[in-house]
Design a protein that fits this description.
Layout: H1 2-9, E1 14-18, E2 21-26, H2 56-66
Antiparallel strand pairs: 1-2
Amino acid sequence: MSRLLQDAAKGEKVYLGARGQAQFQIVKLHPKKVDRSKAFGYWKDKMWVADDAFSRETDKAIADLMLQENLFDPNKKDK
């Protein structure tokens, strides 16, 4: 199969089949190139990240909130 894929990558026509009948053709795809140069620029001036967003203190505060009793149990009522 690797050899067949290599042949298809070179632009050769590759057919697979049974009993002398071609049933499938392996072809190289030519995907459209996407301009990713503006991908991150989209969010410029639309959002911001707090200076302490990735600090240990913030991580601990989030973990403490997630581990609070009743947070994930829909059967328990909030106090």
